[in-house]
Amino acid sequence: MQHTRNLEKIYKGLSRAEKAQLLQWAARDLGDSFPGIESNPLICGGEPCITRTRIPVWLLAQARHLGTSEADLLRSYPTLRAEDLANAWAFERSHRKEIDSQIKANEGA
User: Fold this and answer.
1) Coil, helix or strand for 20?
2) Which residue in 1, 31, 57, 72 has a CA-CA distance of 20 to 30 Å to 94?
3) Domain that holds residue 70
């Protein structure tokens, strides 16, 4: 809590330009976070999955690439919500190489 008070004092002394720069740094730092997606070494070998499930992002991405609609995915996986799919697609866009690699690794499994 002391750090927060110290930061608040520093923040109040910043110019608008300095505050804007600070905001850009914070956005860049937080930009790699994907709500609704988690990687846990104890779940699916650490592959990124939809939170609350054991459904890996690569599986959903592969299904979509093969022509499965979002409606079909939601019917096939009743624990999924539309928001989960939106989070998965955002994660896939940002981590395309990782997802492609996971798809290839799991094709023969």
Assistant:
1) helix
2) 72
3) 37-107
By CB neighbour count within 10 A (0-12 exposed, 13-18 middle, 19+ buried), where does 50 fall? buried
Interacting residues of 23 by C-beta distance below 8 A, sequence separation 6+: none
CA distances from 91 to 3, 8, 32 (A): 32, 33, 9
Statement to judge: residues 16 and 59 lie in one domain: no
Q: For the whole model, what pTM was predicted?
A: 0.70
Answer whether 90's CB lies under 8 Å from 34's CB: yes
| Residue 7 pLDDT class (50, 70, 90 cuts) | confident
Euclidean distance between CA atoms 73 and 101, whole angstroms: 22
> Within a 10 A sphere around the Cβ of 8, how many other Cβ atoms?
9
Contact 78, 50 (CB under 8 A): no
Residue 91 CA to residue 26 CA, distance in Å, equals 19
